[in-house]
Amino acid sequence: MNNKNVVALDLPIPELSDLPEDTRKYFEICQEKLGLIPNVLTAYSHNLKQLEGFTRLYNELMLGDGELSKLEREMVAVVVSSENKCFYCLVAHGAAVRVLSGDPALGEHLVMNYRSARLEPRQRAMLDFASKLTRTPAQVTEADTQALRDAGFSDRAIWDLSNLVGFYNMSNRVAIASDMQPNPEYHSQSR
Known about the structure:
The protein is mainly α and about 190 residues long.
């Protein structure tokens, strides 16, 4: 592992063999399940406390119990990343949408303009909220959360959705500022 082609910043990215055993095991699980170690994890490996915090929050938001499906969570990641023009996350999460949905066109619609995609009313409400909370957070009102309730979201799901939007806005900014590059494998997944 090194930081060549991961981020433009000169970070002291350790070799896999130099990482603590629990981090190595986590990276091995990623390699086994995904066929790669996501560059975002490689980048964060220069600061193990930040890596731990990032992965714990990511795993809870993306894989934890909740009303949002894995596909819906990935759709939110793509729409937030589209609003922010985050190349890393658009490529990585766009690939996940293609894989999970089995629909390569859906991934492309969400990357370019989710409003042009054929979506269920629940998905449309969710993505409208994610877009607005990303672009104009001070303009989010009770009417926006009510629109989610009307689309079938519980208050717990709205909380989870809001946390997901916040997480991707944060990670988009880190990826953009560091010029983080997506793993090349993402580009060809489910095409």
